[in-house]
Design a protein that fits this description.
CATH class of the largest domain: Mainly Alpha
CATH architecture of the largest domain: Orthogonal Bundle
Largest sheet: 6 strands, antiparallel
Radius of gyration: 31 Å
Number of domains: 3
Structural class: alpha+beta
CATH topology of the largest domain: Transferase(Phosphotransferase), domain 1
Number of helices: 20
Distance between the termini: 102 Å
CATH superfamily of the largest domain: Transferase(Phosphotransferase) domain 1
Strand content: 5-15%
Number of strands: 13
Helix content: 40-55%
Strand order of the largest sheet: 1-2-3-4-6-5
Length: 553
């Protein structure tokens, strides 16, 4: 193809090739001068294979509808004889896999910035009903200015379309495949979230979380083996929040992963904001001399020395707990106790309830939800585990309620507003299922001006969940109560307004302004007579004859 003309494009070089097509650098003459484009064609040998050609056509359809600064832009399509092609934006830069080959693991600050851009691209695609299904470094271009572009929607799945492949068939790159993708079961936006977790792990560590001599071994690991923490393999120290987030994205069950890429982006942006404002960022291995490195435990300031932490890190140990029982035969009991004295102190003298609350409090005072989740994961869960009946329970329960309520609100927002069928499907949670059933009924009641019925439905949902002990269910109960209160507040506000308007009518009638009073009376009846909560009052008002004008003073 090089040197040949393909439609309006002069083919100059080959940019890449894969099983589903070849991409060339093409140039065309426009009114603004020469314009470069990446031109993808389907190989002649695939033309007669129905599924392959349909996939090529679908890639064009998908890319045509996606317009986002972090997604490569569709430009043109056509055919010359039996050669079909489409043109897309030509990105000057390098693929992320080439960057990894040259540099190895990236600094975690750079990974955070790239991760935000990937999330933005994926969330936009998901909101348009598209799952990429083949997220990997070679499908991500990075410009010299640091802008990232998501490419290659060759096996992307439109969630509202029939799948081209047969049931059970897997598509994608094995090293990044989610368990459900490997099994050939239901694909959703969370399939991309799993691949994103693998990708971010690779960027942080320079290696994959799972390695195997064959594709089958690799797939077995993705389905059955727990993913390691990036901090356990990385040569650089990582923020606790980033470490936990990446690990959460690689959960085996889709429902255990973050809800969507918007939530992931929010957490990454919170970390980036701390970098910009030079705020303290809790690290997996705190710096020596910081409060995190030397917390007070039952009056004792002890912890594993920084030097010892670094030694453990180099040995790739997943935990900071040193197995001194194995060391006794070789170094003796005394030496073992000396090495891990700080850790024994940690186990024997755990952090007090007051200490854990004091660490969580500034995080809960933040306006960033990411800080609240850090407080929960690092301190509040530990507090409840160690001290189930601690003296600060009323305060910490209120904190947990705030976290669970916002979680339910965010998920409820998706259930109500998302245009993607898979996102609107309620999960296993009883509260989520009840919300999915109640909100359309309550919304319908509001639209027919029956706010009493809407409030009743939310009240019944809250009452049904009142006795549930699971924290996540409590979040849905609190959301139902909040919705009920909002409707009841609206009724109360409307009742007050009706009172004020009726008083205006009465005043006008008493003062002899009959025409004005009639207009006001009709307005009150028309505006408020349709509401079930005002029906009785308006009926009584309509039946009451106008007041006679007062005699002039």
């Amino acid at each position: 193809m090089i040197g040949k003309k393909l439609g309006p494009y002069q083919i100059e070089a080959q940019l890449g090739a894969g099983a589903m097509g070849v991409v060339y650098l093409g140039v065309r003459q426009t009114d603004q001068g020469l314009r470069h484009a990446a031109v993808k064609i389907i190989p002649a040998e695939l033309m007669n294979k129905g599924a392959a050609f349909k996939r090529f056509e679908r890639e064009i359809i998908i890319l045509r509808q996606l317009r986002h600064p972090n997604i490569v832009r569709y430009e043109d399509e056509g055919n010359v004889g039996d050669t079909f092609f489409y043109a897309m934006e030509y990105v000057k830069g390098s693929t992320l896999d080439r960057i990894l080959q040259k540099r190895g693991a990236l600094a975690w600050q750079d990974v955070v910035k790239l991760g935000i851009q990937i999330c933005e691209a994926l969330h936009y695609a998901h909101e348009h009903g598209v799952v990429h299904r083949d997220l990997k470094p070679s499908n991500l271009m990075v410009t010299k200015q640091g802008q990232l572009k998501l490419t290659d929607f060759g096996i992307a799945k439109a969630l509202d379309r029939t799948e081209i492949t047969a049931t059970g068939r897997t598509l994608g790159t094995a090293a990044y495949m989610a368990p459900e993708q490997i099994r050939g079961t239901e694909i959703s936006h969370k399939t991309d979230i799993y691949a994103l977790g693998v990708l971010l792990y690779q960027l942080l560590v320079g290696k994959m979380p799972f390695e195997g001599s064959t594709v089958h071994v690799l797939m077995h690991c993705h389905v059955n083996e727990p993913a390691p923490l990036a901090s356990s393999k990385s040569e650089q120290n990582l923020p606790v929040e980033l470490d936990q987030l990446v690990h959460k994205m690689m959960e085996k069950r889709p429902e255990d992963r973050p809800w969507d890429c918007a939530a992931i982006s929010m957490t990454l942006r919170a970390i980036l904001e701390k970098i910009k404002t030079k705020k303290s960022i809790p690290m997996v291995y705190p710096e020596e001399g910081t409060p995190e490195a030397n917390p007070t435990r039952a009056g004792t300031a002890t912890n594993v020395p920084t030097a010892e932490k670094k030694k453990l890190k180099k040995k790739k140990q997943r935990s900071l707990v040193f197995d001194w029982r194995q060391a006794l035969p070789t170094v003796g009991l005394v030496a073992g106790l000396l090495v891990v004295g700080g850790l024994i102190a940690y186990i024997m003298w755990p952090p007090s309830a007051a200490y854990l609350v004091s660490k969580a409090e500034p995080l809960m005072a933040s306006t960033e939800r990411a800080d609240w989740l850090t407080a929960k994961n690092m301190y509040l869960d530990e507090l409840d585990r160690r001290y189930p009946n601690h003296e600060f329970k009323s305060k910490t329960d209120a904190w947990i309620d705030k976290i669970e309520l916002t979680s339910a609100e965010r998920r409820g927002d998706v259930l109500e507003k998302s245009g993607i069928a898979s996102l609107k499907k309620a999960g296993d949670s009883q509260g989520e299922q009840m919300f999915a059933a109640v909100f359309p009924e309550a919304d319908a009641a509001i639209k027919r001006f029956d706010d009493i019925d809407a409030a009743r439905r939310w009240k019944e949902m809250a009452a049904s969940l009142e006795k549930e002990t699971a924290r996540s269910e409590r979040g849905w109960m609190l959301l139902a109560k909040k919705r009920q209160t909002a409707v009841e507040d609206g009724i109360a506000k409307r009742s007050k307004e009706v009172e004020e308007q009726i008083e205006r009518v009465n005043t006008a009638e008493r003062e002899g302004h009959a025409a004005q009073a009639k207009v006001l009376r009709n307005d009150v009846i028309e505006r408020f007579g349709k509401y079930s909560d005002q029906a009785e009052r308006i009926a009584k008002f309509k039946a009451t004859p106008p007041l006679e004008a007062s005699a002039p003073q």
